[in-house]
Amino acid sequence: MAGGSGSRMYPLSHAMPKCLLPVANRPLLEYQLDMLQRSHFTGVILVTTQSQAQKVNSYVQETYKGPLNVSVKVIPDENLGTCDALRLIKNDIKTDFLVISSDLVSDVL
């Protein structure tokens, strides 16, 4: 899930989605993608909002070089929770899944 506005991280998140904010010179999102790869996931549905879609898509298409198949799904900018966001992409979910917030850094495998 990469859809939050990052209001508590302002002004850092003013020009960049919080999932792309650097931590130790790497975007936050990269930590989740690396963790999923190490856990033998092969595909990722990355959910983001319309206002963040261009920058998130650009990162996935131009910067991310990992082996995961990352599909970006765009939802409206409305203040939706996780369950509503999942409901909007339910037809794209084909099997069991794991939800990870993109602003979380963890080393749990």
Characterize the structure shown.
With 109 residues, the protein is of the alpha+beta class. It is 27% helix and 17% strand. It contains 3 helices and 4 strands. The protein has helices at residues 28-38, 53-63, 82-88, and strands spanning 22-23, 26-27, 43-49, 69-75. It has a two-stranded antiparallel ribbon. It has a two-stranded parallel ribbon with strand order 3-4. Strand 3 (43-49), helix 2 and strand 4 (69-75) form a beta-alpha-beta unit. The longest helix has 11 residues, at 28-38. The two termini are 18 Å apart. The model has no long low-confidence stretch (mean pLDDT 87).
Residues in helix, %: 25-40%
Helices and strands, in order, run as EEHEHEH
The beta-strand count equals 4
Amino-to-carboxy terminus distance: 18 Å
* SS summary, helix count: 3
Pairing-aware structural class of the strands and helices?
alpha+beta
- Main beta-sheet strand count, sense and barrel state: 2 strands, antiparallel
| Relative strand content | 15-25%
Mean pLDDT reading: 87
Concise account of the structure shown:
Helices cover 27% and strands 17% of the residues.
Topology:
Layout (H helix, E strand, L loop, with lengths): L21 E2 L2 E2 H11 L4 E7 L3 H11 L5 E7 L6 H7 L21
Parallel strand pairs: 3-4
Antiparallel strand pairs: 1-2
